[in-house]
Design goal:
This protein is an alpha+beta fold. The protein has five helices and seven strands, in the order E-E-H-E-E-E-E-E-H-H-H-H.
Length: about 200
Amino acid sequence: MASPSQPPLFPLFPLNTVLFPGGRLPLRIFEQRYVEMAKACLRDDTPFGVCLILRGAEVLSKGAAAPEFATIGTLARIETWDMPQQGILQIRAAGGTRFEVRAHAMRENGLVMGDISPLAAEPRVALGAGFEPLAQLLELLAARAGPHQFPDERLFDDASWVGYRLTELLPLPLSIKQHSLEINDAEIRLSVLQGFLKQQGLM
């Protein structure tokens, strides 16, 4: 147990994806370090951190260093799990609080542990009339994605929620998705998305 002067460390899972608060993350885990991590999270009811890989690979080669990853990520809590075959763990996690990695180190088994600082949630802002077409587009995309890939909670009048969900579903470069995660202003995020869609001739 960590002392008051030594904050608890969280396991970090660098991935080629960006997880947003309120989002869903299905994972098929086969590397032993992450199978053990997921089992510990389930046992202790604790989250793990998801960070976008900037350089390197998801699967660690023997003797390789940890990949470089973004310092802003999102905590993920496992909602459901299944082990269809020995050594393969399938989970679905939900995105929670955003965080910043202050320091990290890799254990002998290759698992990266981070000293993290939670980031405050965005102030809730009602969706402005000018962004209603984005909410309408999101409804169409959500219907195509299906309920298993989309959060049960539907907040089409919430600017942050609409921005997060659209950024997840649209085929945006990962660098733009990461930038959207780091933005702490829902209306700026929606303006960026709106500009991208107009540029692509989709609005």
